[in-house]
Amino acid sequence: MIISNFILKIIALIFMTIDHVGVFLPYSTLQTVFRILGRIALPIFIYTTLEGCRKTKDIKKYMLRLGFMSILMYIAITGAQLVLYFTNGKVMIFQNMFFTFLNLVFIYYLFMVNKNKYKRFMVIIPILIFIGSYTFYLARSNGFDEFVSTIFLDGFTTMYSLEASIMFVIVLVGIYIYEKIVKKRLDNDKNLINEFLNSKKAQLSRNLIMTLAIMAVSLIMYAMTYENIASFTFGNVIVYNTYFIISFPFILMYSGKRGYSNKYINGAFYLYYPLHIGIITLIFTLIGGF
What we know:
This protein is 72% helix and 0% strand. It is built from 13 helices and no strands. It is mainly α.
């Protein structure tokens, strides 16, 4: 296990950028390769988000940052859609990845941090958001392309609603059960528990749980590629998502160490997503690639 959290995020950003460039490429073998390689990014981001939840000192501030970035991303998505529409008369399917992470962290907060059992019923909020977002995505994938809705609602929808939520919940439940077993075997001795959960063995166990979650979602995506009900499909991206599984070597090499970090680097990680979306959209619009 040799990859720090910092390096893992860099790897995810590289493959995410490759994927988003592939979105604008004309249909070809090169585009397919770019989109498949891009599948490496999401599982890494899911895992680093979970690690962020586990290690942050203030999860509410974490959610606040994600909320702010969700708003910024909404502005970027809406702006990109308007540019595409008024220059080419077309729009693309854009969704808000930060809104996805915000809802995932909220689920973590409700079940792993919050002590009020009644508050846990608030999980219905992210569930409805994920269901609504995925329904809207399916409508877009199957021909719904109304101007106002697609441009001004895309930024309010979560990205990878089905895939991210399933993957996150599987690994969250897996780690929760694992830590319960550890606590029981160590007779709830807090010092021994903290020491063990910060060990290399425990980190490898968490990495393996995440790998199993990735494999499970990849299999679900594979099964969904065969679903076609009355000409209604789940969208071509489902085919690419069967390749989430290729991300597992990076997950297994994760050391659990933070790596290089400061407030400027952390800020750059947040800002890179909306900035690179805008830049890629602008470049391909100017060269007539869209």
